[in-house]
Amino acid sequence: MLFQSQFYVLVFLPLVTMCYYAVANSERARHLVLIAASLVFYSWWDARFLPLLLGQIGSTWVLALWHERTGSPLVLRIGILLNLTSLATFKYLDFLVSLIQSASGLQLPRANVVLPIGISFFSFQLISYLVDRIRGEAPIYPLRVFALFVIVFPHLIAGPIVRHNELIPQLLLNPLREGIYQRLSAGFIVFTVGLVKKVLLADRLAAIVDPLFKKAQIHMLSFGEAWSAALGFSFQLLLDFSAYTEMAVGTALMFGLLLPENFVRPYLSSDIREFWRRWHISLSKFIRDYLYIPLGGNRHGPLRYGCATVIAMSMCGLWHGAGWTYVAWGVWHGSGLILHRGWQCVGHPLPKIIGWFVTMAFVIIGWVLFRSSDFGIAGAILSSLIGGNGYTGVLQGGLTLALSALVSLLMPSAHEMKDRFLLPYPVLAVGAAVLVVFCLLEVGKGAPINFIYFKF
After folding, report:
1. Which pTM was predicted?
2. 77 C-beta neighbours (distance < 10 Å), count
3. Nearest in space to 166 (alpha carbons), one of 19, 22, 282
4. Among all residues, which ones are annotated catalytic?
5. Which of 318, 347, 314 lies closest to 332 in space, CA to CA?
């Protein structure tokens, strides 16, 4: 079920909200409402994968309980292995087969397994819980609460990646507590902002970007086409994914829950380290806490730091997809972080404006690699960006690109909107309602377009 679909906005969300608040004073009842709604929400895509989701949740909880009774960390490591095996089987099996085929020369069959939606996100949440159990930082929760932490529908499909200690304490609070109307109204406005960004900007950018990257598979793009593709995808990815986050945060707020921040205007960053503090924050923190720091981080000299950074960012790239272009994108950003640290050691920081230009050029080059289906296409587009196919052509969708640039650079994050900019003005509510109606009419013109991160 898509957040921007007419059914979700007009039927599912209002119905679930009414049922939830009708039983809000009963912790068990409101949890069961959210669990039932989340199972329907997930099954809407493909009910065949519901046993997988429930199986991973159940086995993780049982192994954590077993550890509580026996004290053996082995059972927690088995749980981590099971979750990683599930993720690897569905997401990376054919990629691994292709590697074996390339190394051996044998012709091997492909499994062509359908990727369960959200598996990258809920697997990481379960793994983080088990690792925290090993570290002595996670208690045993009741199964109902633990399951709800994983499957609550606002963040189930594409995050943010939420940790147990961030969400479970909130699930125990009565949603009728003080501030209920502020949370409901703020949630509606934040959701509306995400809806507008998705329907009126990200989806229109997709109409520019997708044909250009498809054309690049056959013909070399002109200078104008290459910049349209590179800039368009850079804005599309941010607007599409941040829109999902805002719609998730807004929905959760309506149920009295606050999801973590995921994007804080990353295209204002003046260095690559700052970019990763602003971009996909929940994933960045996960990679930092569960991979980069255990590998040594920056505590054991420059060589260990460099290895930890490249490995962590390579895994970050591989998390996004089973392909060498994703790994290369991760290595590209890992190398950028190492160069940035080296430049810091020199002690001559760049002026902010120059640092911003360098950072954006670096990020855009990376996005071309990220979006391209192979290195040949990425190389051809990058060549066109610097005039390798001449300097002909103009930017396509200039107005859409300009509006997207302004929104990408200036639009406050979901938490900033909630905390600083949402004031109780009737005109704000009326304007949001008008925008919702307009977006729903736009969506009704054709099938809604999936969010980009649904395929990761």
Report:
1. 0.93
2. 15
3. 282
4. 320
5. 314
